[in-house]
Amino acid sequence: MGGAIHNVYKGRQPVVIFAGSSPFTLEQELKGSRNEFIQWIQDVHDQRGIVRGYTNYTNEFRTGKNIKQVTHRALQFATSDPKGPVYLVGPREVMEEDVNPLPLDMSVWTPVNPCALPPSGVKDIVNSLLTAKHPLVVTSYLGKNPKAVNRLVELADRLAIAVHESCPSAMNFPASHPAHQGCQWNGGGQSPALAEADVILVIDSDVPWIPKESKPMKGAKIFHLDVDPLKEQMPLFYIPAQNRYKTDAETALTQILEGLEEKQIDTEGVKKRLDYLNQRHQQRIQRLDKTEVIPSSGNISTPVLMGIFRKVIPKRSIFMIEVIISYDGKYLITGNYSVWILFRSLPLRSPWTSLRFWSRQSRLGSRSLYWRSSSSQRHEWGFGRDRSNCLR
Asked: Mean pLDDT score of the chain, rounded to an integer?
């Protein structure tokens, strides 16, 4: 459970975790008293403390009479931004307590409404975008809300704003869009889009860049829009943003789009910038396409293998990748390519499909991709229900 709760907490996923605890009576004073040896062994002083650093809220049921209220308060913490897991624990005596039905009015147990930008913030951002030469949006998890993705596409179309994904954990922006300037995790060197941007909107990102590898140019005006701009549970975090706003991405982008409606837009400048972004986007696609060509040696590199995946796996798919990439410049870039090549052609909306990598075989539903290397350096690969579908 340790790794799972870390993932849902850092991924801001609303999850309710319920655990029991050892009965607190042992001479049958209450229904549910101790009756097994393990109930002595399992008892600890602060069970909630084990997970407190990885939850939005913890509590213990002390009576069955208000279990509903405590549970719905926990749900409010789980579903309010920044979302995250909550942990509830109850001893057996409480869970076996006889109680009367308690109806609740669910309309008074709603999560906190999304936060909006202040009017002054909307004005500042809109004016900065209109006067920017190379505006840029950097995001990592804006796409957790699909509606925010649509708003970002509208903004990119309206002003020809470049979009760069840093350590993405969601489908934030269609990779086929000419404004998409790529993804970056560890390594990879300086991002050209980040280096030239004079106005940057960092929207929902825990790590918008790693200064050792890539960073904005000096003097860039940076706005940080996030459900958690201070990263309250990160001991070390800061970026050189002139303005920070605790806001919901969809709400903020809607406000910015509305603010643009009253402004005069330099359509000729927008067109030139779109042509520039499209040219760089196509150049990047061409460079990636070259890495997917099978060399005369027949050796299967990571880009080649991922290119095969893209051709044979259903187009409307989302992939979950469970691979560990060695922190080494040579292999790191290859690893970045592997993830990018999988995701680069995905559409805006996709149903969920799971792809898991294993040592020599991957499974997608009832199909598998097979890859075998013989001593003669001949490689076989294919995608199907059995190895008879392998290509040579």
From this structure: 83
3-state secondary structure of 19: strand
The two domains 2-108 and 119-282 share their CATH topology (first three levels equal): yes
Task: Find, among 279, 282, 281, 285, the residue nearest to 310 by Cα.
Answer: 285
Question: How many Å apart are CA 322 and CA 340, to the nearest integer?
Answer: 14
* Confidence (pLDDT) at 320: 65
User: Positive or negative CA dihedral for 5, 65, 113, 244?
Assistant: negative
What SS3 class is residue 226?
strand
Q: Where does residue 236 rank: exposed (0-12), middle (13-18), buried (19+ CB within 10 A)? A: exposed
The token duo for 321 is 């990748």
Answer left, alpha or beta for residue 236, where phi above 0 means left and psi between -120 and 50 means alpha.
beta
Handedness of CA 237, 238, 239, 245 (dihedral sign): positive
298: left (phi over 0), alpha (psi -120 to 50) or beta: left
For 115, the token pair is 């936060």
Other beta carbons less than 10 A from residue 209's beta carbon: 21
Which position has the higher pLDDT, 234 or 316?
A: 234
| In this structure, CATH architecture of domain 119-282 | 3-Layer(aba) Sandwich (3.40)
**Confidence band of 29 (pLDDT split at 50, 70, 90):** very high
Half-sphere exposure of 146 (CA within 13 A, CB side): 5
Supply the pTM of this predicted model: 0.79
Residues 6+ apart with CB under 8 A from 79: 14, 111
The tokens for 238 are 């800061």
Looking at per-residue pLDDT, the higher value among 10 and 316 belongs to: 10
Rg (CA), the chain: 26
Q: Output the CA angle 129-133-135, nearest 5 degrees.
A: 50
CATH, domain range 2-108? 3.40.50.970
Residue whose pair of structure tokens reads 């196509």 in the numeric block? 282
User: Does 253 have pLDDT greater than 70?
Assistant: yes
Q: Where are the domains of the chain?
A: 2-108, 119-282, 292-389
Whether the pLDDT of residue 345 is over 70: the answer is no
